[in-house]
Amino acid sequence: MTQTWIILGATSSMARAFARKVADQGAVVLLAGRDMDDLKRSAEDMRLRGTDARAVKFDARDAETFAPILAEADAVGGVINAAVFVGSMPPQDAIDEDPSLIDGTVMDSFTGPARFLQSLAPLMEARGAGTVVGVGSVAGDRGRIGNYVYGAAKAGFATYLSGLRNRLTRSGGHVVTVKPGFVDTAMTWDVEGMFLVASPDKVASDLMRAVEKKKNVIYTPFFWRYIMLIIRHIPEFIFKKMSI
To answer: How many beta carbons lie within 10 A of that of residue 25, not counting itself?
Structure first.
């Protein structure tokens, strides 16, 4: 049966790596994002390698871009899947100076993707199959002084994915929640204090294994599960004095 993968935020390095892996399995790939010139180049490159790849416009802040993507995926037929790599992370000090930046951060990292997935869910239920890969962040596990607005958005997205997983499981679908640590992407290039930085290809491989094994929640690389377990259990009276 034909597999279609909608890749939201397809210009990110993690998304590109994941798109190549699903393409290797013969899927139709819809590369969705804001930079159409970049997406068209990527789609052309994938077509030259034998993949049915298409560039489609997606903007988490513009719901009018959602329906054309869903219509194209529906027209392909078969099983529809989606992977969400969308998000934005302004520096916390910039948000402190301009609180209006909160709106875009939450829309990019949570409400925009959630609204798209909410529209996709009925198509997946009608087919009785399909997988959603929702990329969140370890930042959503606890509010930290350096990025608590971004962390709050990703925490909300993780809760949404949990509910969507509960819903789609009843019709044969599945949702994987992904919580990466530090990954070598454009979003983290200017972030100070990073350590144990993973490559996008490593993360994409972890995502593929999670899809194949129908994992519910994964941390990538795996050791972030234990790092965040420790961070979540630091007592609040100590944690609020820390700068992590």
So the answer is: 11
